[in-house]
Amino acid sequence: MPLSDSFLNQLASLVDQVVTDPAALDATSHDTWPMTTKWAAVGRHPYRGEAIVKVSSADQIAALLRAASQAGVPVTPRALASSVTGQPIPTKGGLVLDVTGLPLALAVNETDLTVQVSANYLGSALEEHLNGLGYTLGHSPQSLLRSTVGGWLSTLATGQFSSLYGGIEDLVVGYTVILASGETIQLQAKPRAAMGPDLRQLFIGSEGTLGVITEVTLKIFPVAPVELLQTYAIPSVHDGLTFMRAQAAAGLRPFLLRLYDADEAKHAMVDPAFDSGCLFVGSRGLPGVAEAEFAALDELVRQSGGRALGPAAAAAWMDRRYDFSSVENMVAKPGGIAETIEVAHYWSGIEDLYNDLKRVLAPLADEVLAHFSHVYTQGTSMYMILFAQTADDETAIDRLERIWSTTMDCCLEHGAELSHHHGGGLVRSPYSKRSLGSAHLVLEKVKRALDPAGVLNPGKLGL
Ligand SMILES: Cc1cc2nc3c(=O)[nH]c(=O)nc-3n(C[C@H](O)[C@H](O)[C@H](O)COP(=O)(O)OP(=O)(O)OC[C@H]3O[C@@H](n4cnc5c(N)ncnc54)[C@H](O)[C@@H]3O)c2cc1C
After folding, report:
1. Is ligand 1 within 6 A of the CB of residue 276?
2. CA angle 243, 168, 84 (to 5 degrees)
């Protein structure tokens, strides 16, 4: 239903700007998910807001959410739209809430090792500021240069060095969130709190469906004085996984740990003739400590058949770790497909899942690549990259749909996690109930309690 003039006039009195220009609405009907890029290429905008709302204060967000809840108008928060699953796509129209105009604030506490920032702070700007003071976030997603702190919380993001620092859920100290009612809630732990459940986890990963995050306090870490890197050739995925499991069980915490299968190793080594799997390994820490960990890792890799090749390839990867151009260039080609899908499983299931996914996806792409890069004592993530050239963008759209349904069905058959860090978004929303199982009921009840009019980012997480 189109927004009424009286509602648009009300909005205009509450916020900085209300944009209804069709080109701007088209632009916010897409994110960085290759599917929405293909929709844009063929002129399709199946999910389009009716107005973009630009705000410059938390009070404006509160007033806007109150008004939208009363009128039953959907509100989809949008930061930098680096989502690759359609998370900020306004599936039910209504308002796109552009949070990027909040005033930028930053306060470092060097005693408590925290940084408090506005939710719209750009990841790379924050990391650069901290590096200048001798600190790091420890959170280094590949999208660091194009994503915000609020986006990280809302998507349950994880960074490339998570095997040492943890995911965003481990790195958050506290934050402020505005509910659909307009009420402002502060969640914190100084540094741990046992008064009731840890409610800080409630909005992390909620994809803007439960509230709008306005400021965040994160942990920071002193930059480590020693950093050591090594590259290994590893005979097989089985050998690589055996090593990764052994090092996790031993309690080692390398900041860099990436295992590539033989197909992706050709890309990772930038050598089409490279003919085995490979591993990038790195240790950070105090002198003596980093070296000791590095030596222990080396011993374990060798026991799994690894052969050291020197630090150069791992160092080259560190230099290009934010580069996404191979995917973007392929998606930009007419009929070109490049898709990234990340899932996770226990150690007991990951190798069978890998073998089955490679088998079922092979007919759907020219290349099916895989790496394992976020490691836990109980299991690991698996990241698939698929490249294909199809006849045209309509064919590419059909193929992408088949790639996703094939992958999700295979993961469900294996009892694997359907997403490790890209979240549900539009693409995985239909699988949310099966993925969360009985816990989805809790999410539904929480949603009804916090957003009774159901206005916040409808159509996501199976809500
Ligand atoms: C090249 C590339 C590499 C990537 N690498 C990684 C990676 O290594 N690790 C990883 O985890 N992800 C990665 N991603 C995915 C994406 O960058 C993350 O999901 C990121 O956290 C999204 O941040 P954003 O600021 O762009 O949010 P958006 O994409 O704008 O929004 C994402 C979701 O969060 C909600 N949201 C945004 N801001 C707020 C807010 N203030 N309050 C409430 N809800 C909000 C939106 O409604 C939406 O549902 C990558 C993406 C790209 C394109």
Report:
1. no
2. 90
- CB of 422 within 6 A of ligand 1: the answer is yes
What spacing in Å lies between the alpha carbon of 202 and ligand 1's midpoint? Answer: 17
User: Could you tell me the residue ranges of all domains in the chain?
Assistant: 5-101, 106-222, 226-319, 325-422
The answer to whether the CB of 148 is under 6 A from ligand 1 is: yes
CATH 3.30.300.330 fits 325-422, yes or no: yes
Q: CATH assignment of 226-319, given 3.40.50.300, 3.40.50.2000, 3.30.70.3450, 3.40.50.150?
A: 3.30.70.3450
- Contact (Cβ atoms closer than 8 angstroms) between residue 90 and residue 74: yes
- How many whole angstroms from 28 Cα to the centroid of ligand 1? 14
CATH code for residues 5-101 = 3.30.43.10
Query: Is 3.40.470.10 the CATH classification of the domain at 106-222?
Result: no
Any atom of ligand 1 within 6 Å of the Cβ of 230: no
**pTM, entire model:** 0.98
243: left (phi over 0), alpha (psi -120 to 50) or beta: alpha
**Contact (CB, 8 A) for 179 and 75:** no
Whose structure tokens read 């840890």?
Answer: 198
Read off the tokens for 225: 């004085």
Question: Residue 339 phi/psi, 5° resolution?
Answer: -130, 145
Nearest-atom index, ligand 1, CA of 177: 42
Residue for token digits 């969360």?
436
Q: What is the mean pLDDT of each run of 10 residues along the chain (463 residues)?
A: 92 97 97 98 97 98 98 98 98 98 98 98 98 98 98 98 97 98 96 95 98 98 98 98 98 98 98 98 98 98 98 98 96 98 98 98 98 98 98 98 98 98 97 95 98 98 96
